[in-house]
## 1
Amino acid sequence: MATLLEVEDLTVWLATRNGPRKAVDGLSFRVDSGEVFGIAGESGSGKTMTAMALLGLLPHAAKTSGRAVFEGRDLLAMKPRALRDVRGRSIAMVSQDPSTSLHPMLSIETQVTEHMRHHLGIGKSEARGRAVELLSTVRIPDPERALKAHPAQFSGGMRQRIAIAVALACEPRLLLADEPTTALDVTVQAGILRLLDRLRRERDLAVVVITHDLGVMSAVADRICVMYGGRTAEVGPRETVLTRPRHPYTRGLLDALPHPEGGAATLRPITGSPPSLGAVPDGCPFHPRCAFAVDSCRERRPEPVLVETGHLSACPPDPLGGAA
Amino acid sequence: MTTGSRTPWRQPLALVGAAFVVLWVLVAVLAPVLAPYGPVDQIADKLLEPSAQHLFGTDQLGRDVLSRVIYGAQVSLPLAFLLVALSAVIGSIVGAVAGFFGGWVDGTLMRLADLVFAFPGIILAMAVAAALGPELRNAVLAVVVVSWPSYARLVRGLVMSARNSEYVAAGRLLGSSSVRTMIVDLRPNVAGPVLVMAALDVGNAVLLLSGLSFLGLGAQPPMAEWGSMVVSGMDYFDLWWLWLYPGLSILTVVLAFNFVGDTLRDALDPRTARAIRG
Amino acid sequence: MSALLEATGVAVEYHRTGAPPLRAVDHADLTLARGEILGLVGESGCGKSTLGRAIVGLQGTTSGEIRFDGRPVAPLGLRRRPAELRGLQMVFQDPYASLNPRRLVGDQVGDGYLLGGTSKTEARRRAGELLERVGLPADAVKRYPHEFSGGQRQRIAIARTLAAEPSCIIADEPISALDASAQASVANLLVELVRELDMGLVFISHDLSVVRQIADRTAVMYLGRVVEVGPTRQVWSEPAHPYTKALISAVPRADGAGVLPVELPGDVPDPSRPPGGCRFHPRCPVALASCAHDDPPLTILRDGRSAACVLAE
């Protein structure tokens, strides 16, 4: 598979009252075309800021460094105008809450066809035809009628499908989905996850799924990057990361989940809470909460290193290595 | 944005506002000591330019303008405080009752407030003052009549949103009565915004009172009231000291209370207070 | 065990201007014993939160009866809640909305004692103890809610209910607004408290896997009705109602196997116009022709649990 997006040493500084603070710190990953790449982490881990940096939608006064090469061009070095062209055309986004990403007062037709007509320069009737096609692709019943409707007339799940149709309007190569199912019920979530999976197979679409839900990750992602405190804790193939994690943070996240076989056992939370912006500890950001922390964790900043084929972990003591 | 500890009161505008408020209150209290002459004493020649003898000059009746401006603070400030307090109390009670009980109580009280709201303030105040007779006391009443509805609206909105909040529900489940809920749970949420509005309103009240006097419906000559001083000064437009000094007094009082009100807003909200302190 | 909480045939209707009344809860039955955790699950709009609010009296009912410790629960009006209902408390979903931002944490937690007739200083002191009990520093009494994280706030909200010395807590999605690690620890705290204080807990959640982990019994709601109730283990291993089955197979598992969850076709219908017959029949994969007009009641099955499906036995 061809590499579609290559992010190298991405760092994002956000302006805070106390000066710039790193929200993302030296993140590197690549996404191949037709691949679903998952970025997992708790709130404040920098996962959403990563997506915003790629889209050039960071908050005011934020700064970036590093490179994010998409189809041969560095997104971070692009002029806002050029980036605006890439965004919406080659890279599209689906956000958590379709009731805010869709305009409540505009018809579905306007919203689905707007980008097509702007980016692809096609006429009204052609755009309309494609919109009908798209809505049936995302399984909206009676697409012709749906075009005339407004977002409020649809349920949350249907709205998210429409938001996906809007995102797909210009046949993007990469879809960034930030918590696409978090606001939805499980049965509806299942439908959206199946839709994303089908789209990447049928359209060779690369999808970056950002979520805190490892169950969702396990269902759709081919490879997973676990972020903590703005950095990569671990990145590797889905199965390896979720069944044989090498980073204690990933282990902790998995242990905190209710056990699939149930039972009266209590849940096992990770002690402490994730660091807030600007208060990321020195050394390994996870060390204050880590049961395996040794002195070097407090001092040296760990870099992700290859622990097995395609699997990188940023935990030099590697306490879980023997368990593999 | 800088680092370090900063309370809202350390912002330059807040300091200027607070300084002017303190200054004017002191002037009002100490007027007999500070003023070189009495407010209505005709002690000199008419229309003297400002000089060492008469720092702000004298007016058309030979009264010392500086003394009149100083005594003017004794008229405007206490009245402004009084009428803001009156409208805040009346408005808050009406708003709290409307917001808490809702239904027809709310409907009736708020239609009444809307009725008053529908008229431009100064025009309604003029009507009330004209009907009751051109007297300062009536002007105060007129201003209260036009200004309570904004408090009622504010408090009603706050009470309504807080009433449906989960923390009020939680309090009710613990066995808190309606009245206790209003006092304990809703008061802290309402008191801050009302205080802020009141502080901002002191300036407006001074302005409105002066406005009524300017129109001849408030303070009557020879009383040293800033608004009426401006209007009688307007007859001698070239003699700038007649209208400029009382005008500046009105301006500084209005601005000072506005700055203080804005600062109060930040200081009273535990969230922004902390954020600014960093 | 006698029932601590008993809800029989509870219905809640919302009256809206210019629209038919919305029946959010329709003849729901629930029982809860002391020391028991009942998980109440269902998708959004199924009426689980409304039922929870009706049980504590925050929501008026159209019909049905709710009894707490044998006494009827009357909906909360303008008057003070009767003292004998103080044992029935609620924990809300959003710990940002359920604590007054402008009151000290200690005052809010101490309220329960104060309203129980304790002196002010004593209430303050005991509030500190409660806060320590739920895992917060005692000096939290002198701080404001915004100084705490979501998980900590939810602990504060739990401490506040404990001040009323409750024997039953209705927790409405108490962990769904929290971060993953905070979710587990707050759920654990609730379980611990139930065991330690011999309380009853109704744990309302859309997160089935958490309910599976902590609940003794599970009740599943669909469109305002309870469609299945039984011991959690049974409900999970052999769901009797097709909706329960669909719900369980839609939960993705973090096992790394890459299995896509099973989709339940269609959408939850508009609760103001529920389908005739069995309410689940338009989406039901095993519906019979008769399901379109026969509305099955919740009946006790052979193994002791209950389900509302003609196919369950």
## 2
Amino acid sequence: MSTTILSTRGLTKTYGDGESLVRAVDGVDLDVAAGETVAVMGPSGCGKSTLLHLVGGLDRPTAGEIHLAGRRVDQLTERTLARLRRTDVGFVFQAFHLMDELTVVENVELPALLAGRSPRAARARATELLRRVGLAAKAAALPTALSGGQRQRVAVARALSNEPVLVLADEPTGNLDSAATLDVLRLFEELHEAGQTLVIVTHDERIAATADRLISMRDGAFVDETRLTGGTSGRLGALAELEG
Amino acid sequence: MGRLLLIARLAGRDLRRRPAEAALLLLAITAATTTLTLGLVMHGVAGDPYQRTREASAGPDVVASVMPDPVTGAPADPAVLTELSGADEIAASSGPFPVAGTTVEVGGRTADVQAVGRPAEPADVDRPIVTDGEWLGGGDGVVVEAAFADALGIEAGDTVTLGGESVEVAGIAVTAAMTPYPAASCLVVCTPITINGEPVRDMAVDVLEEPGLIWVGESMATSLAADPDDLAYVSYLRLDDPDAAQAFADARIPNGPMDAMLEPWPHIYEQVTHIERNAQRVLLTGAWLLGILAVASVAVLVGGRMADQTRRVGLLKAVGGTPGLVAAVLLAEYVLVALVAAAAGLVAGGLTAPAITDRAAGLLGGAATPSLTAATVATVTAVALGVAVVATFVPAVRAARTSTVAALNDAARPPRRVGWLIALSARLPVAVLIAVRVAGRRPRRVALSIASMTVTVSGIVAALAANAELNTQLASDPDPRMERLGDVLAVITVTLVALAAVNTVVATWATVLDVRYSSAVTRALGATPAQLAAGLSLAQVLPAFLGAVLGSAGGPLLYDAVDQDDVVLPPAWWLVAVVVGVVVAVSALTVVPARLAARRPVAPMLQGELA
């Protein structure tokens, strides 16, 4: 039986009060096993990104519990949450959020430097990750000189800098064309095969189809859950469709 | 006309939308214009009353005096002065008049006095101007020099005890033949007496200390002297060429105690005006320093606003505003503020000037003399406008050139990349790494911060050195006018520090706004709020430290440039204390905005960029 890496119980996030109360996330229970890829789908404003921010420690829940790698994290101090993000979680954003004044390799090594690794070790890890995402030749380039797909691959490499137990991707292909989406999809496939745990928020069914499990979300709550098995309706089918 | 009206309305609305920023701008430029106004109106403030007094009182070109030998007690010989009056260069003269050293008692106070015996009828040279009461009428009444009367609270009609006898004060008068009390020249033997630099302790005659001047009848002067041989004598000489007065005196430097001592009018003029000239130098230097700081303030404020105003620029362009219109609106805002600041500075400077230049009633004119000339108004207005335009030009042009789509998306201005700094910072602790990279994104803002602190610390160090010298002088020669100079120094120093503090807070806030996205990303990648706050604060402290070090070196140079006398450099520990003080002060000023920024929620900011 595989270990549960991420677990939430009754996870709730509300904004406002009284008649203007908005339940962005409404009593969500979620379990993600080690090495599993979970896709969360739903229309804009259904609470997908908020859920991701809550489990990644970027935002605090109004109620409920979050357990990450066997540790309850919803009541941690801001400082401890920062350390958690540094070591246990890697983020991939739709807008990439790369620092324009840093080169590709400097962007990738930044989390390692923030974690207190030596500059040499941080650079070596960044170089290795860039090789893994196929961008070793672009190490000295600035993000503005890269295509959208390349930027997102840099962001994925950055997310892996400190070998996190969980990678959270928020609409990772939302800003990309089909070719670039295929690039990123292949990268996630490699990560999955390497045993990396992934939670991907997306509104793109082709991306969702590559996951082990697909969760549908509406009005802040999970409304459906499907375990995918691959084949024409799963990962390979999605890749075939994109390549076609 | 319609276009101008549109620009004025847009500029006015934006100013009203941000009253605190407009007030800060106004404060910064007004500080500079007020000081500049003061410096400009000080010009001639002391010189004019002296010249006026000299003309109205038929003031002498040279004052000649003889006094008894202070060591042997040999009597003074008035024939020496009579002979001098017959020199070829002399156009007119009066005297010799007898001078007796004595004391005056009034209201429980006693002061030394040099009593000059004068006839009742006006002399050809030196006719003191009576400002209250009347001139000597041949009786027992006396006339008191105005600054001396002011210091002792004497008025016409009072009775004072002069040399032990009660006499009535017939009048109060001013003269250009002597520096007003307490800096009066000595016509009799005054302390300290030195020969070859050594103080003479055993005197054959009575020695006065800081004597005031009183005019008495000639017979009274003689009777006030304990012995006729103790009398000194004074003559007032007018030359054919007043400009030759210094040369006339230089050609007759006394060889011994019995020779005539000559004081040419430029020397008196120098004595009368030196404090005002020093104050003017201080004020003008302070005005330039404050002007530079004001440029830095406005530049940082405008830059900061641009970081917060990109979307507004986009909207303006999207609804049809041309790049020229956008630039004109921004320039108009600051030009408007500059004009108000110029007016406020002129009024404040004009009202404050009498408080600084107010002098004891030793000359005609004085307190009311400082006045705003057209040249002063034009200069102050031009400087205020210059400050606004210089500081606003680059951001205005940049805003005008910003792409409309990028501006509407509120895209942050692309940061600069300084490769070596980024490589260096990788080896530093996390807070310093963040600080160096934050600072490196905006080299122009860092340069402004360094310049601002260099100017401030230069001013502070120069003011400290000047104040120390002033205190030394005050200890040996208390003078209320010198104390006022100390007040001027203090006001300028406080204004410099206040402006620098405003600059620091504004620069910190501008930085916080500028790096809000990268700060959110840095936190998402694992930086703690404390590390980010320390980094943002350090990003201000590092340039401030550099500026403080440069300012510590520049301060003595500035003081040397302002004061041509021998400069006494402040001790090294002062300079170290100033640098440490700057670091502590900047840390304290930046800690609150930095902590607020570091604790902002990350998620909305990361999603905000998608908006």
